[in-house]
Structure formats: C-alpha cells, structure tokens
C-alpha cells in the first residue's frame, strides 16, 4: 500500500484542498513552489504507463480537478507535472499530478 492510499483512507493526515467521489487533492509535504498540490485518482493506478483504456475518463477527471485546484488557488500560470517511473523522478507509485504555481518557472525543468 502506498502513502497516498493511506491518505485516501485517512490513516495519515494531509492538508486536503479538494475531494470528490473519484479524486483527492492535498498539499505536498515537501513543497517545491508556494502552491504545490498533488491530485490523485482514488482508484490506484501505479503510473501513466500502466493506464488502460478504461482509465481514460478517470484521468481526464483528475486533470479537470487539477484545473479546479489551480483556479481555487487563484493561479493564473501554473505547471502540471506527472513523473512516470523512478528514472523520471517518481517516488510514490500511485499516479498523481503535481500542480505547481506561485513562482516563475524555467523550461526545460532539468
Ligand atoms: P513523485 O516524486 O512521485 O512525482 O511525487 C511524490 C510527491 O509526494 C513528492 O513531491 C513528495 O514530497 C510527496 N509526498 C511524499 N510523501 C508524502 C506524504 O506523506 N504526504 C504528502 N502530503 N506528500 C507526500
């Protein structure tokens, strides 16, 4: 079980900013920007590469929630990040979208 499943199950606390039947959003414990929120599907999918066609609507909803969180946080410009696999920086193996904002950002991210 991942740490995010424990947050969904309320086994460990999190600063939750949005919740509905299918998705949860909470502040990252180690923020990389003034606003750093993680949006996750409640149904556990390990990573983008593990999605199946039946997950398309759910992950579309997760992207919609990311948009809603950005609006809620009054972010005009923001970055969405999804790390896929350890080599890409993924450390929690429950698919999540990082919503980062509140500071200027560079491209490429490095
Ligand atoms: P990843 O590196 O997998 O793309 O992102 C995982 C994120 O989860 C990291 O930014 C990390 O700070 C965050 N994180 C890890 N454990 C916890 C936790 O227990 N609570 C919260 N709120 N965030 C966590």
Describe this structure in words.
By secondary structure, this protein is of the alpha+beta class. Helix content is 21%, strand content 23%. The protein has 2 helices and 5 strands. It has helices at 3-8, 56-72, and strands spanning 16-19, 23-27, 35-41, 78-81, 97-101. A 5-stranded antiparallel β-sheet has the order 1-2-3-5-4, covered by helices on one side. The model has no long low-confidence stretch (mean pLDDT 97). Guanosine-5'-monophosphate (5GP) binds next to strand 2. Residues 3, 14, 26-30, 38, 83, 89-92 line the site of guanosine-5'-monophosphate.
Describe the structure concisely.
By secondary structure, the chain is an alpha+beta fold. It has two helices and five strands, in the order H-E-E-E-H-E-E. It has helices at residues 3-8, 56-72, and strands spanning 16-19, 23-27, 35-41, 78-81, 97-101.
